[in-house]
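This follows on from our talk about sequence and fold. Can you supply me with one protein entry, sequence and fold together? Could you add the entry underneath, on a fresh line?
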Amino acid sequence: MNAHTRRFLLSGPAGALDCALDAPDAAQFAAPRGVALIGHPHPLYGGTMDNKVVQTLARAFVSIGYVAVRMNFRGVGASAGVHDDGRGETDDMALLHAHMQADHPGLPVALAGFSFGTFVQAQLQQRLQAAGTPAERLVLVGCAAGKWPMPSVPSDTILIHGEVDDTIPLSAVLDWARPQDLPVIVIPGADHFFHRKLQHIKTLLVEMWRHG
């Protein structure tokens, strides 16, 4: 993302996992306020941790004092293995979660994702809830409702979607959110990749985090 991005490898069940970490400015924050794990879009359609929406989420979290960490899913970049339809990807994200908790004990952990990454993070949140250690909050951008079997998510989840998303129609997200009584923030004129609309994602996340 920038000159301060630290790349590292984790050893996962399918082999090495290619990760990137961005930390908040030490001059602005005496210590990190939390950790944010960010999941990227579908690996079989060009999704990587360097996707612009994923990088925007990382920048937003860093700007509010969080350590932001991303991972290339299996078979992407320097990550070993092959795409596993979300199962192995969730296992790998759980491994990254444990690694970051060990590195930053006591800090809250947020989960964020874009497109396919929202499916992985929603599944991870279910695991964490079952273990009694739920994530602090979820941020789901371009939620994969209708594409993947999205589980229910907590009521304070931040949902951001493009009005003219032709990959995951807004109607599918509303149909998924409605029974849960979840608000959906719609960006007018935004497509699936939020071309020329990325600034709205960062602004919304930062404002909603500040005001709970």
Remarks:
- The chain has a mean pLDDT of 96.
- The domain at 6-210 is CATH 3.40.50.1820 (Rossmann fold).
- Helices lie at 52-63, 87-103, 116-130, 170-177, 198-210.
